[in-house]
Predict the 3D structure of the following.
Amino acid sequence: MLTDLIQIKREGEKKHAENLSFRKWLKSHTFVERQFHKAAQEVHDAIDCRACAQCCKVTEVELTERDIAGLMKLLGASRKRFFADYVMQNDEAKPILKRTDEAGCVFLSGNECTVYDGRPADCERFPHLLRGAGSLESKMWKMPDRATFCPIVYNWLEKVKGLTKFTK
Ligand code: SF4
Ligand code: SF4
């Protein structure tokens, strides 16, 4: 299993077009989803997210009202203070956790999440292979991009391409 983050980036980018073709190919074939979930569980079990934290560095975290309430409670912050210190807007004017391209999420310290017990649902579910609603097929649209930085997604896609005997 590939875990080196530099290799993941290089291989994920190299295989991006192939992974897009796989996503399209998957839509025109029928498979038992259970085998995809089993593969996702195996990859999750084999990879230590604490040695990675790439999702906290790379992705935007959209906030729901529930996320906001949970974080405000955890931090003991008023809504005004919370929005001033920890929230910005994305290109669609939706509230996301404050972040920079250099440091990632405002709550990331090294590879540690400093608000782990109150982290947003999106963080808890990432990379959305095992958690969250919807079929795996419906979640596939973001996977080729995620495979360029997330070891779980990269290895899962490789496993699933093998299981389905996908040929380029
Ligand atoms: S809140 Fe925590 S888990 Fe979510 S992106 Fe920020 S550091 Fe990562
Ligand atoms: S979910 Fe993926 S990107 Fe995020 S820490 Fe785990 S392996 Fe890394």
In short: Strands lie at 87-89, 95-97, 99-100, 104-105, 108-109, 112-113.
